[in-house]
């Protein structure tokens, strides 16, 4: 990676979604790791969105931080593209803003959210994790949770030595802009190939002209992510380029 993820300049926006208690925040207060944006009466599948953050920052994560705001268009696109029946749409709420080395705080929050989801809706619920940057790293690490069916990793932070064994049996799409200067596209795509060599089912896409913020070619990011999630849940065929990428020996360009 070209440098540790470092988000800047928070902007105000009210928090979204209902939530259920899980985990703790600094100081010991109850923390809602699972924030539900939309839930049907009967849940058979779920999509959880994980935003980015910083390599090291123990301060509390806030909904107004830029990393969180960046995923709001993806939540809106997913809400439009997923059926209202059967599929829960939510996000993971972090206690802290950073990964924080061995503490791996966003991973702990993601696992807490998954556990709560299973507690509420049963062990048969199938979950697709959609994570950006630090959230992509957390999603990939959490892929070994029994509820996780698939992962969509958007410009994920993949430092050297990241494990891949947990990706066995999970479908994973890695998507990275070739102009990303925050997380390394080569490291991301290298992890995809490493996981595949270890028996994982992975696909890799490179978005030409796109950077880390996913603002350039935003509609392509949103459309590809939503179409992939629909395909991974069996609600529609995978987008043609994603289906081809799962069988391609190297990353495909989009």
Describe, in plain words, how this protein is organized in 3D.
This protein has a single domain, classed as Alpha/Beta hydrolase fold, catalytic domain (Rossmann fold). The protein is α/β, with parallel strands linked by helices and 254 residues long. The two termini are 21 Å apart. It is 30% helix and 21% strand. A 9-stranded mixed beta sheet has the order 1-2-4-3-5-6-7-8-9, with helices on both faces. About 9% of the residues have low confidence. It contains 7 helices and 9 strands.
Alpha-carbon distance between the two ends: 21 Å
Strand content: 15-25%
Biggest sheet descriptor: 9 strands, mixed
Structural Rg: 16 Å
CATH topology: Rossmann fold
What is the domain tally? 1
CATH architecture: 3-Layer(aba) Sandwich
What is the element string, with H for helices and E for strands?
A: EEEHHEHEHEEHEHHE
Specify the helix fraction band.
Answer: 25-40%
CATH class: Alpha Beta
The assembly state of the depicted protein chains is single chain
- Specify the number of helices: 7
Rounded mean pLDDT is 90
Q: Which spans have pLDDT < 50 for at least 5 consecutive residues?
A: 6-29
CATH superfamily membership? Alpha/Beta hydrolase fold, catalytic domain
Principal-axis shape equals globular
Number of E-type strands: 9
Strand line-up of the largest beta sheet: 1-2-4-3-5-6-7-8-9
Instruction: Briefly note the structural class of the backbone.
Output: alpha/beta
